[in-house]
What does this fold into?
Amino acid sequence: MTAPVLGLDVGGSKTHAILADDRGVRAEVLAGSANPASVGLEEAARQLRGVFERIGDAPLGAIVAGVAGADTRAATAKFRELLVINRPGVPVDVVHDAELLLATAGTGHGIAVISGTGSVGWARDTEGRTARAGGWGYLLGDEGSGYWVTRMAMRHALERIDQGEPADLLSQQLASDCGLQGPEDLLDHFTSNPERRFWASRARVVFELAHDGDPTALAIVSGAAEHLAFFAASSGGRLGLTGPVVLAGGQLVHQPLLQRAVCERLAARGFHDFRVLDRDPVHGAVELARALAAAPAH
It folds into this structure.
């Protein structure tokens, strides 16, 4: 039996790790974020130590970590050092977390479009070249994400108040979902509780109303689909790719209305082979680690 490998998916809110060998998964660990960009270097190192303690001291064939926001050599080198400290002498690779999505979907090249709390489009061709569109973070972008969908609903509610118009169904439902008496309380609630995941999860109100035909909710979903399709087309187009297109992220995976809208827009632009991610991205890290362990030593 070959040595087990370790795959990690390191996001902004959690770290998901799987230790696997020829027979399958040997250990699975969920921990807090070990992403230095999100929690700082000291906390990232602490979380990783906890992960390695929980998987035990078995020899490893390779380690691959997909890290959110690992866009630069400096960022990947910093995280690589954290891994090497825990397992000296083991082959290690650090990739952008979007690369895990392609591997999880069973392809080494293609386009990944993500809509969860945040959003991004990312592509990789057969020669290893990559391109990205979006993913600027919630302050500058993340259009089409859960946070963005809720933000657009919030703006709609507040604009109606500014114009002296009565609250419509979307405004009322959004306030109710937050446990508020009415839309006039939304602004104070937002400023006192700006946590991104909380507001991103409120996007379900928009999708529920869009499913029922609410015109404002439908317009917001349409806007989200336009942005996500643009991210996919921009990142893939720069590499001459038209597929496969992997749809990922909690919102894009679990909201069929958004899925269909994105696929329709991309199909109209000549893109094809749409795949909805049906496994956790950490499985892609395991596949990449297996490939790294099998690669000839340099």
About this structure: The chain is about 50% helix and 20% strand. The chain has a mean pLDDT of 92.
